[in-house]
Amino acid sequence: MLGSTKCYWVSERMNSWHGSREDCGARGAAMAMPWDKDELDSLNETLRKPTRHFWIGLSVPAPGMGWTWVNGSRPDWSRFPQDLGEGPGACGALKGDRIDPRACDTGLQWICQTESARI
């Protein structure tokens, strides 16, 4: 599916967060990293599955690190009006119009992203 300057791929099967990250990498992509609430809402509207969770590229990789995107950057929480807490071992999942913290070994569908190409 196409959204702004990113292309998204949504899995049909379930995997852990780490397995999902590996799968995205094998596809030459990264786990989805919605930049702000508007992009999160647009992605959610396209999915049209508000009751399901989908892994995205956000996690607390180690104690004291806080939430980190898979590209190493930190989320700008002023763009996401919610508090996920800071528990280590937590990974981010899109559900409806929010990001929910989940145990990383939970089996969920996932979303990969890549930059769109001009044709």
From TrEMBL:
The keyword Protease is annotated on this UniProt entry: no
Protein name per UniProt: Killer cell lectin-like receptor subfamily B member 1C
SMART domains: CLECT
SUPFAM superfamilies for the chain: C-type lectin-like
Domain of life of the organism encoding this protein: Eukaryota
All residue ranges annotated as the C-type lectin domain in the record: 3-113
One GO BP annotation of this record: regulation of natural killer cell mediated cytotoxicity
Keywords: Disulfide bond, Membrane, Transmembrane, Transmembrane helix
GO molecular function: signaling receptor activity
